[in-house]
Give the backbone structure.
Amino acid sequence: MDKYVLLRHRDTPDIHKLSVYGEYTALQKAVTTLTPEQVINEVKVSGLRGRGGAGFPAGVKWSFVPKDRLPHYVTVNADESEPGTFKDRELMEFNPHQVIEGAAIAAYAVGATRVYHYLRGEFKSVARRMQAALDEAYAAGYLGQNVFGTHVEIQMFLHLGAGAYICGEESALLESLEGKRGQPRLRPPFPAVVGLYNQPTVINNTETMANVPYILNHGAEAYKKLGTEKSPGTKIFCLSGMVKRPGNYEAELGKISFRDLIFGENFGQGMMVEGRNVKAILPSGASGPIVTEAALDVLLDYESVAAAGTILGSASVIVLDDSIDMVWAAGKVTHFFRHESCGKCTPCREGTYWMEKQYQDILKGKATLADVQLLQDVAQQIIGKCLCPLGEFATSPVLSSFQHFQAEYEARATDAKKVVPAKAASAKAAATPTAAKTADTKAVPTT
Amino acid sequence: MADLINLFIDDVAVSVPKGTLIVDAAKRADIDIPVFCYHPKLKPVGMCRMCLVQVGRVKLDRGTGQPVLDANGSPEIAYGPKLETSCTTPVEPGMRVITNTDLVKRAQKDVLEFLLTSHPLDCPICDKGGECPLQNLTLTYGPGVTRFDYADKQHLDKHYPLGELIFLDKERCIQCARCIRFQDEIADDHVLGFYERGRKMQIETMSTPGFDSKFSGNTTDICPVGALTTRDFRFRARPWEITNVPSICPHCPVGCNISLGTRRSAKGGGEWEILRVMPRQNEAVNEIWICDKGRFGHHYARSQARLQKPLIKKEGRLVEATWEEAFSLIADRFRAANGKAAGWLGDRVSNEDAWLFGKLFREGFNSAQLVNRPHVAGLDLVARYGVGVGTNLGNLGQGDVVFIVAGDVEETAPVHMLRLKAAVERGAKLIVANARETKMDRYAAISIQYQPGMDTQTVYSLLASVSNQQSAISSQVAKFAPSDNKIKAAGQLIAEAQNLIVMLGDERPYPVMVQGQYTDAGRALAQACANLVVATGHIGKANNGLLPLWPHNNTQGVYDMLSAQGAEALSGEVKALYLVGTDPIGEGQNLPPTDFVVVQELFLTPTAQQADVVLPALAWAERDGTFTNAERRVQRYYKALPPTGQAKADWEIFRLIAEKFGLKWSFFSAEGVMHEIAAQVAAYAGLDYVCLAETKEEWPPVGTSSDLYFGGTAYDNRGGVGAQTKSLFEINGRSELKWIEPPPPSGQSIEPRRLNRPGTLIDQSAIYEVRLRAAELVKIEA
Ligand SMILES: Cc1cc2nc3c(=O)[nH]c(=O)nc-3n(C[C@H](O)[C@H](O)[C@H](O)COP(=O)(O)O)c2cc1C
Ligand code: SF4
Ligand code: SF4
Ligand code: SF4
Ligand code: FES
C-alpha cells in the first residue's frame, strides 16, 4: 500500500487539485454500483471509528438514521478547537478532495442531499482552499444534482463558526449551524434521530470522512489490515509541545507508542531541549487525563490508551518536559475550560470558574493546604453532573495532575510542612514514581 | 386511561400518563424534587442540574427484549452510572426512582453550592426574598455554609433596564433561561436571549425598544430568583408584608384572575396602595399568566385625580356638594322627567351595578331606555350561541377548530392568544380571517385576508363551502360559494371539526351614530357568525360556539343584566340622562339633547365636565363585585383598598337614589344584589358569592400552599375560580338561522384595535406611558 492513507499530499504534491487527485472513483463506485445499505455495511465491516474524539464506529452511527423521516443531513465537523489538534486543517488545506469524496459517500449512504461542513471561525483561509476544491468537484459533476449522471443529488456547503470550542461538540455544532447560540442540546434524542432542523443527521469528524474513500476503493478487508482489530486504520497524531519536531504524523493505530511518536526518527525526534525528559503527556489535548513518562510505552490505539487510564481522543499529544511547573500547566488548562464553558449548566459554569480561582490563589502563593484540597473537591463535585462532556473534561487535567504531581501542589501551599521551591518539588515528583527511562530514539517506520 | 405507566418513586407506587416527566410524577405522589430551570409550563432544558436523582430501569434481555428476572421472578433493575435529571427524563414502566439517598442529597448540596458562588446573597433587600425558590431550596436542600471565598465573587450590573418596565439584576440571575423560554415558547416574542458565555452569561434584550412584549411582566413571576423586577414594584415592599387580595383584571374580556398585593406605603402617604398585580392561578382562564396592561394598569385606583366628592353644577361651574344634595337634585329631576329618562352604562361596571341600574330605571325612573356602551353588535347572539358551559381553551387540541374573524386576539384579549398558540401546538387548527395581518396568522392553518368591509361576505363564503344542506338561508348563502381555494380548505377544516369556536371581533368599519342611535352595521357580521355555528351544529356544547373579542371586561355581564331588566333602545325624548362609567364626549361623540345630565365616574372626564351632577364612584379595587367574561364565566373580585374620599360603590349609589323614590331595597352588600340576580336571571340561577369563591386543585400546582419551588405567593387561588353561566341556547334549546344581507363595503378605513390605546383608566399609569405612546405610533391606515 501507499505510505499514506490520509496525508497523501506528502507523497503526491498538489493533490489538492482535482487534476492530481483524479476521479472520485470511490464515490462513483458507491453511487453507480452499490446500494446505500451496501455502503453502510462496507464501512461497518471496515471498523472505521470516529476520529473526533469518542471513537464511535462510523458505520454503526450511519445505520442509526431512521429511513422514514426525510430529509436527512450530513455534517462534517472541522471545528478542530481542541488544544493541540491541527490534523483536519492539514487535510482540508492539502488533501481536500478526499474529505469531500468521503463526505459525499456518507451522504449517499444515509440518503442526505445536503452536507454541511462546519469549520472553526479562524479557518477562513482553509475555507478558501476547501471552497476551491468544492468548486472543482461541482464542475466535474461529482457534486450537484446528478452525481455521476445518476439521480443522486449531493450538495455540500461550508460554514464558518464564530470561535467557540463548544461548537465542536456535535449538538452545539448543530445549534450553531441553525444560527442559534452554540450550546449543547439535551441527549437523547441523538442527532442521528433528531439533528439539524430536527431531522436525522450524521455528524462525523473531517478525518473520519477522509478515511471513507480508501475503504470503498480498497475494500473493508484491506482497511482492516491496517491498525489493530478493534482500532483499524491509520490515524493522524498531532504532536506538539516540547519536542524537536512537532507536527502531524500518520501511523497505523496500535503500531507505535508514545515513545515512538515523541522520539522516533520519522516522528518527533526527541525533546526540544537536549537533556530534558518527558514529564507529562496530554494525550488528547486539554480533554483527557494527563499521564507521565510512565506511559511512554503505551501503544497508540483506543483500547491501549484507555487501559493506561486516559483517552486517545483526537490524538493531540502535547508533551511537557521536566522544566514545567505542573500546577501552572494544569491551571492553564483550567483557564481554557473556564473560558470555553458555554454556561448552560451550573456545575461546569460555576465549577470551572471556581477551579480557576483556586489555581490563581495557589499560583500566587495565597493558598493553604485546605485550599489545595478544595480544588480537588470542586473538581470531584463537577463530575457526573454536567449536561455535556466539556464539564467532565475540565476536571480530568486537574484530578490527574493531582494524582501524579500532588507534591507540587502541596509545596505551593502557605502552610506546607516544608517549604520546598517549586522547581525542586517538581523534580522530586517526577523522579519518585517511576525512574525516568533513557529516551529510546530508535525510529519506527510508519507503515 | 390506556396509557398509564406504573413506577416506583422512593418505594411509593405511582401511576401517571405516558410521557410524564419524573419530576411531575414525583409531584403527583407528593414527593418534592427541587428544580430551578424546570417549570411545568415550559419545555424542559436540563440546565441547572438541581433535579438529579437516581434512576433504575428494568433490565431487558438483549436477545428477546424481555425483562430479565431475578431469583424471585421480579424484574431486575439496572441503575445508571450517573444521576439523571428528573426534569428531562420521562417515566418508564417499572422504573425505580430514588430521590432521598445521600448520593442525591449530596448532589443537591453540590449544585446549590455552585449556584450560590455567583449569587450576591442580598436577600435582605431583594424583592423576591420570602417567596424565592432559590432561598427556599437553599434552606431545604442546600449546604449550610459555602467554601467559596466571598471576595472572589464577580460583580455585575444590578440595575440593568431590559425595557421601560423590567429591570435585571445581573448578579442575581442564575441562568435558568426561564425568562427566555417564556418569551420564546409561551409569548412567542423572541426578545430575550443570553449574551456572553460561561460565568459571564447574561440575559439581554434583543429588541428595540427593549423587552418589546405585551407579556413581559410574567417573566418576573417565573424567575426563580430576584433577578427580574418590575419598575412598579422593585424595592417597594417585602412579599410577606403584602396582603394578596383576590381580584379580576378590569381591562379586557379574558377576565384574568389576579392578586392585588396591597400594603400601606410611605410613598403613598401611609395609605393603602396596590404595590403589585400578579396572576392568580386559574387554569380555565389565564393559567398563571397576565398581560402587561393587567399588571401595570392598576394605578387609576389610587390616582390623585380621582373624584373625591359629589359635584353639582352651580352657575356654570361644578362645585362640591353633599351626597344628600346630589341625591335630592337627581330625584327631583328624574321625577320631573316623568319616564323620559335614559341611562348609558359603561361596560366596565360590575354585574351588581348593572342590575341595580336597570332596576332603578324600571322601578324608580319609570323608563327602560338603557344603552350599554360602547356599542358592540350581536350581544344577543353571543348570549344565545356563546361557547357552552365547560369551555376551556386549555383543553383544545386535535380535532378542534377555532375561526377568528375581524379581530386581533393579541390586541383585544391578550391571554387568549397565549392559550390559542398552545392549543395549536396540541393539534388544534386555527383559521384566521382579517383585513390585515395579526400575530395569530403565525399559528393559523389557514389565513384569509379580505378587503376591508368584506368580513361578512367571507364568513358566508366559508359557510357555503362547509355545507350545502337545505336551510332557511341556504339559497342566500349559496350565492357566496367561494372560488378561493383557501376558503374551500378552511371550509373543509370546519366540516371535519369536532369542536368549533368562532371568535368574532369588531375590527371593521365602525358603526356610526345617527340621531343618538347606532346603525347596526356590525350586526350582519355577528349574524353571519351565529349562522355559521348554528348551521354546523356547533352550539350548546363545551368548546363550541361564539367567543367575542370585545374591547372591555364586562360587556357580557352588563348586557345580561340590562336585557334581563327589559332594556330598550332610546326611542323618544330624553329629559334626564344618567351616564355611568362612560365618556362619549371624550370619545368624540355627542350626547342626545337633554335637560339634565348625571355622570357617575372615577374621574372628571370631558363628559363629566358637561354634567349637572357628578357622582364619585369606587374603583373596582375598593369594593366587591363580579364580572362576567367573554366565556360567560362569572368571577368575584374582592375589596382590596379603602375608599377614595367620599366615593361609593355604584350599586350603593343606585340603592340610595332608589330610597328617594320610596323604594325599600334591602341590599347591604354586592353579595345581596347577586342573590336577586340569581333569583331573576335564568342564566345566573344558583350563583352566589359562596359558590363563586370555590377553588379547586389545579395542575400544575404553583404557589406557596401547594409547593415551594415555583415561588410566587400570589399565585395561590384563594378567591375562587368562578362559574360559567349557560348560554340561552343551553337554557331553552332555541336556535334559528336568520338572513341579514351583507352590507357592501363602505370604503371606510378600519382602526386596528390596540391593547395599549390611551384611555381614561390606563392613562393614570404613568409607568405605562411609553407603551401607550408606542401604540399610537404603530397605528395602521387600513
Ligand atoms: C467539548 C467537545 C468538543 C468537541 N470538539 C470536537 C472537534 O473540535 N472536532 C470534532 O471532530 N469533534 C469534536 N467533538 C466530538 C463531537 O461531539 C462528535 O463526537 C464528533 O464530531 C463525531 O464525529 P466522529 O464520530 O467522526 O468522531 C467534541 C466533543 C466535545 C464534547
Ligand atoms: S458542561 Fe459546560 S459546556 Fe457543557 S453544557 Fe454544561 S456549561 Fe455548557
Ligand atoms: S433572569 Fe431569572 S428567569 Fe431569567 S435566566 Fe436569570 S434567573 Fe432565570
Ligand atoms: S389579558 Fe385581559 S384580563 Fe388578562 S391581564 Fe390582560 S387585560 Fe387583563
Ligand atoms: S436540570 Fe432539572 S430542574 Fe434544572
In short: Chain B has a mean pLDDT of 94. The first strand of chain B starts at residue 4 and ends at 9. Chain B is about 25% helix and 20% strand.
